[in-house]
Each structure stands twice: as C-alpha cells, then as structure tokens.
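Model the whole thing, not chain by chain.
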Amino acid sequence: MLPIGHYLFLSMALFILGVIGVITRRNVIVVLMSIELILNAVNINLVAFSRLYGDVAGQVFALFIIADAAAEAAVGLGIIIAFFRNRETVLADEMDLLKW
Amino acid sequence: MQAATQATIDFLKLYWAPLLCGVVIVAVLPLIAGYIVLVERKLMADMQARLGPMRVGPHGLLQPIADAVKLLIKEDIIPDDADKMVFWLAPVFSVGAALLAIGGLAFGPAFQIGVNLNIGILFVVGISALGIFGIVLGGWASNSHYSLMGALRSSAQLVSYETAGGMALVSGLLLAGTLNIKSIVEAQATQGVWFGFLAPVAFFTYLVASIAETNRAPFDLPEAESELVAGYMTEFSGFRWSLYFLAEYTNMIVVASVATTLFLGGWLRPFAGIRWLNFLDFVPPLLMIGIGCYCVLRMPRQPSRVQQIFMLAVAGLCFVAALVLAGPVLLPFVKPLMAARVKPFYAGIHGGFWFIFKVSAYLYFFMWLRFTIPRYRFDQLMRLGWHFLIPLSIINVLVVGLALIVGSYFNLQGWALLLATTPAAILALVAALVILSMEQKSQAREETSSVTDFYAG
Amino acid sequence: MLDKVIFYFFAAIAVSSAALMVTRRNAVHSAIFLITTLLATAGIFLQLRAEFIFIVQIILYVGGIMVLFIFVIMLVNLDVALHQIKFARQKWVALVVVLALAAQVGVMFWTTGEMPGQGFPVLAAAPANRLPAGNAEAVAKSLFGTYLLPFEIASVLLLVAMIGAVVMAKKRA
C-alpha cells in the first residue's frame, strides 16, 4: 500500500471535481452524476483508511454508502422524470416555480 | 531506470502464465466462437431434416473462416448523425466485458485462466453484467428508432433476469459456502453430490435466466430478424457486428461455465466420490474410440475422395485423443511406480474433458431450445421474469437456507442432504406458482373492471 | 513498484475522466466518463486489497446505477439542451468558492507536514499477512455480526426507495 497521503489526495481531487459539477452545471442529471462522484471520493477515503488500520469496518461503511447512493439515485431520477413530464425541461435555471 | 526494468522483469517472471493465457484467449476465442456458430448451424439443419453448410471445406468446416474473412473485408458504414465516439465505443464495451469475464474461470484443477480469485464467481457474473452498456450505448449511438427501442428492450430484459439469476446463484453458493471457483468444485467433491441435485430449483432458474441474459431464443425478441430488424445491432456492419456477435457467443460460454462450476460439478466426473464407480474413468477414452470407429464406418459412404480422407483424419484425431485420455488411467496398471507422478496430469486432462463435455451439453440445450420453442412477446417475457422467476429465486434462497439448518441439525451429509432440500424445492415451487396465480387473478380482475368502465362511458 | 504503477494508472484515469465528465455538453458523454471514473475507482479498491468492495462497486454502481442514469438520459430527450450553454450563470462565483475549498484542504495538508502523508502520525499500513484471509469472508462476518442492525435498516431503506421511485415515475391513470 502507498502512503495514505496519496489516497487522500486522489479523494480530495475527485471531491473537488464533484463539487464543481454540482454547483456549476445547469443540467440536473449531470448534477446528480456529480453527487455520485462525491460519494465515490468518500468511499476511496474510507477504504484507504480501512486498509491502513486493518479494520474491515471502513469497507462495511463504504458498502452502506454504495447502497444508499443507489437508493438516492433511483429516487432522484424518479423526481426528474416526474418533473420532466410536467415542465419538459431538465435545466436547473428553468426550474423556478417557487421563485417569487 | 534500472529499478524499473528490474521490476518489469520480476513482474513478468511472476505473472507470465496469466498474461499468456490472456493473449491466447483473445487470439483463440473468436475462432472457437466461430466454430460454435458452425455447430449451431449444423444442429439447426439436423433438427430441420437438412444438411447445413457443406460447401466450404469438407462438411462445411471452413465456413467460419469464410464468414470471418467476409465480415472483415466488408465496408464500414457509420450512420450520418451517429455519435462517432460512442458508435466506436459500444462494441468495445460488449467484447471487453465478455472476454474479461472469461479470465475469471477455471477449466480444471490446474487450468485456471487468470488468477484464482477469492471472489471468483461474483467477478465473472459482475463483469459480464457490464456488457449491458455495449447494448444500450450501441442502440443510442445508431441514431435510429428501431435500434434505440431494441436496445432499451434488450437491456430491460437483461437487468430483470440478472436479478433472478443472481439470486439463483446465491442459493447455490449457500450450499458451497465460498465464492472461490476451485473451492466450490472441491466442496462438491467432498460432499460427493453436485449442487444441481441439491438445489434443482436454483439450477432451473439459472438456466432460464442465462438464456435471457444472453439474448437467446426464446427470449431473443430484441434481436430477432423478423421483429426489430436485429434491434441494437442494426446499424453495425462488418467488423463491428462481428464484435457484437463474438460478445454474444462468449457470453454463452461464460454462463455455461458458471452453471457448470456451481451446479454441475465443474471438472468432476459423475459420482466422483464413490470408489466402486471408478470404472467411469474409462468413459472419456471409450467415447473417443466410439466416435473414431463411427467415422471409420461412415467413410465408405462419403461421396468424394477428399471427404473420405477427411473422415479418416477425424477418426485418427479421435484415436489420438482417446490415447491421451486413456494413458493416465491405464498407467497405474502397467507401471505402478509412474502412477504417482502422473496423477496430477490425470486429474487435469480428465477434468478438462468433463468440463468441456458439460459446457457443451449446456450449450446443446441452449441451441435445442432455440430451434424448438417460439419466441416470447416482450410483455410476456417481463412478466415471466418479474412475477415468476424473481419471487421463485428469493423464496428458494430462504428455503435452501432452512434446509441447510435442518440438515446440519440432523447431521445430513452429501446425498442424504437431498432429504432436506427436496421438500424445500417443492415448497419454493408451490409458493411461486401461488404468487403467479394470485397475480394473474388480480390482473384478470383489473382487465374486466376496466372493460366495464369503458362501456359505462 | 507494481502497487505504485497500478495506483497511478487508475488515479490518472479517475481524475481525468472526472474532469471530462463535469465539462461535457452531451449528457450521454458525461455518463460514459462517469462509468470510466467508477471503473477506475473500483481499480483503486482492488489495489487496496478490498476485493469485495471492488466487485460490489462494479455490480451495483456501474452495472446498476449507471444503467439507470443512461435509461433516464435517453428517456428525457436532450436534443434541446445540446444547443444551449452548459454552465449556470453563477459559474465564476462557484469557481471561487471551490478554489477556497481546495485551498482550505491544501492548507490542512501543508500544516501537518511538507507533503501529503508525511505529517500524519507514522502508521505502518497493516501488513498484507495481517489482513483476514478472505476479504469477502471478513466483510460478511462484520456485516452480519457487528453491523446487523444497519444492514437491516439499509434493506428497509432500499425497499422504501424502490416503492417511491415506482410511484413517482408511474403515469397517472
């Protein structure tokens, strides 16, 4: 295994890229995909530390995060489909029903 | 630089065998897939009372090579508005996933292709599931309605039956207790019974699910010629189409190997544990001798001299194979001292023979079904998967677990475990059929009620 | 040495695919690059000797979640979006915020030592022979032993999400 810093650096890079995607993109589906990227970065972190300490709990936690990400992706995409049926758009700028 | 070269040399010294196997697979598997297609065409012809390809080479044996050359020199047509990068990438996904899945298999006690993974079966199943992307992206990149619909239907079918097949595998894995391919076959050897007998419902479910997974008839609506014009493969021509084709037949080999490993005893001969049935070890050489004699007997009836010589050559090959197979079995009688040294080869060669025999039987069953049963309509297909197979496989996991607990309480081993698992299997089937009939009743009620509403205005 | 080569290979693929993913105009291209990022992440898991998480990532994340994403992208016809601007109006403010975040993390790394990793308390990685013999067995033992309750709660969560997604995506009669 490489020094832990390498994995932390990689995890940070993926996290930052995911945050850029979430804050900046207009297309809501790409925003959801960037959220999945953030969750992956966290997973890398967890598994790296689990290997560092020889404790398998980190991998179990990563497993739960993957299951949770699946549930969230399913529900999020259901919401997007329902919204698209009504408003014919997936761009975040045009989803302004609650604006005054 | 010095350290890098030294490290490369060390790596090659350690891992030269899996690397060589990988190269051999990528080079040889297209040829094998081509010959499986020839076998299918000959079988189809036989079941339809005709002869099949006979012109190219003796008895049509050079037909796959002719087909391969034709596909390679065909013009590569890309639709006008197609997305070029994705159009190029889609067949790569399919073929890559299928070939990578082959790398996790083991054909004999020492014939593993890659490394003996701790998560063997799960690796093979998971990687072959990546082939879905080849289908979906191929259909989308073709920029054509038929392709997109075929792709979406095909991937919906694959995803549905993947769940059922996975749960069926879980039932088998409960009996094995490990994911490692070698350990699964060793577990069947120590228990003396194939898991296909202990979990027949799981075997049946995996059989049906694997037919749907590889888009074979009767589940081949998305790619049948009379339905959606070949579905997601419509716009791919020449070499790209041959990549999809190769992926489909490689997937067939992969699912057959997984079923053989988990349910049919892998490389064990039938009744591997019983010593007084050791005479069954003579079956492989005797089979080969039988085929050789049949070829010799049919030789005079061949129409031309070339084909007669060809029959003699095939007979000769069979006799050589019989000699190779019989050698390790007869050697203990001839030279007892060499018996110990030859035992690993014996296990390896006979193991390889039995494995290939079982995989061929499984593929024969696939092809037999294709030529016999009419195609399922897509909604019938989805209903079978979701309303029957998934409840069946989930209930089967429960009852196999219960049967194992009961078996360990009464200390049943091997064949005696059948006493516990057979009632479990019957229970699972009955429960799934009850669920299916309940669903049919509710759907019939729904249909009649909606008809009534329509008439009421 | 082999460890290093594998890590850098997969890390390079992961970071470059992620960067490409957040900048593509076409949503299907973004999805494909996310698939390659997830596959590279699975490779990192394998390099960390976490075989079970590697295969679970491939089966669930790539083979499940990404298929779902690609279905939805194809269902939602995105021809219109292709001709419009892809970044929202707040992109420069967002970039400043993200740079601030990156600077914070960088400062944290820097103050704990010169290079990432050297400032952390010196911990030898668990030697490979101290790891449990089978990774899948160890995870299973932990999952069904210590963490049984979270496991059951996660299954209820998945059931709820399944029902919710079906209800939301259903066409109103």
